[in-house]
Amino acid sequence: MAIEPRAGILDIQPYKPGAADAPGVANPAKLSSNENALGCSLKAVKAFETAASRLHRYPDGGASRLRDAIAREEGIDADHIVCGTGSDEILQLLGRAYLNPGDKVVQSQYGFLVYRLVAMQSCARLVSAPERGYTTDVDAVIAAAGDDTRIVFIANPNNPTGTYISDAEIRRLRDALPPTTLLVIDAAYTEFVDAEDYDSGMALARERDDVIVTRTFSKIHGLAGLRLGWGYGSKAIIDVLNRVRGPFNVNLPAIEAGAAAIADRDFMQRSAQHNATWVDFLRQQIGGLGLEVTPSVCNFVLVHFPQTAGKTAADADAFLTRNGLIVRGVAPYGLPDALRITVGKEADNRRLVDALTEFMGQ
């Protein structure tokens, strides 16, 4: 007889990443995981390769070199930074540190799936606040949170919708929450946003001790394979997270590559420019086929399909896969009629539009 795990663990559905293979198709275009179409900084690659000569050494347990590099580029205090194996680990550390069984956690309706995992791992209660137009509704979040919520998770901009709320709205939310509620702003896609009314939340986290912002190297920096992220908040919050993380949670090559990547502003700028061009292209071209495309400030678009037999999201997913184009179904988010499509290289983007044109016309 198997040893029983803690109550609630077997109710958790493991996170399923975007597919990477299309059966029977050689070298398919992977547009399922919001990876950087341009790859990563060559400076990061060189730093990673150089680190190979020191693989017998333990990494710096505090990732000091990486935190210092982040602090220089962001203009913040390194003592207010904690690093992790992707921003996912920071989110999980927050659950481990601040959630007790039965505590309430609030997210927006189509919030990132990891928030649900964090709540369930801690035996906490997850409440989803309805969105408006696939965008976080601050009033709904405030109403759902009430006076007894322990953590509010807000992805800004949000995955999988690609939408964002303004800095003013984030501040209004924080002001309406009780001081006993921790506001977690997941800003994984912040570098792609150029809207004047947007802020990553870093300024708010600098001002208050009840806000933390999580960031990642997986998107604009193109280091998804290294699993590297960081969080920024008050010294009190960072101190708590340092007490619950593993002593060597970030490996040595990741520290070195991350420090090089965040200093390569030219690569970041080229990545943002590529994305701005092609996310607009995808929205216009796919929208022209009669499909609804949610306006996105990220490196992906959310495309909605009809429920007509032969034209559904599942039908489109299967058709695209057969044609070597791997996208992401988002039914687990409560969006069974939509697909999330990552911005790829120019050739992949044009190929995708051609394939969807054929699909809708057949």
Automatic annotation (TrEMBL):
Pathway: Amino-acid biosynthesis; L-histidine biosynthesis; L-histidine from 5-phospho-alpha-D-ribose 1-diphosphate: step 7/9. Keywords: Amino-acid biosynthesis, Aminotransferase, Histidine biosynthesis, Pyridoxal phosphate, Transferase. Signal peptide: none annotated. The keyword Amino-acid biosynthesis applies. Its cofactor is pyridoxal 5'-phosphate. One of its GO terms (biological process) is L-histidine biosynthetic process. It is an enzyme of class 2 (transferase). The modification N6-(pyridoxal phosphate)lysine is found at residue 219. Its EC number is 2.6.1.9. Gene3D superfamilies: Aspartate Aminotransferase, domain 1, Type I PLP-dependent aspartate aminotransferase-like (Major domain). SUPFAM superfamilies: PLP-dependent transferases. GO terms for molecular function: histidinol-phosphate transaminase activity; pyridoxal phosphate binding. Residues 30-356 form the Aminotransferase class I/classII large domain. InterPro entries: Aminotransferase_I/II_large, HisP_aminotrans, HistidinolP_aminotransfase, PyrdxlP-dep_Trfase, PyrdxlP-dep_Trfase_major, PyrdxlP-dep_Trfase_small. It catalyses: L-histidinol phosphate + 2-oxoglutarate = 3-(imidazol-4-yl)-2-oxopropyl phosphate + L-glutamate. Belongs to the class-II pyridoxal-phosphate-dependent aminotransferase family. Histidinol-phosphate aminotransferase subfamily. Homodimer. HAMAP family: HisC_aminotrans_2 (MF_01023). This is Histidinol-phosphate aminotransferase.
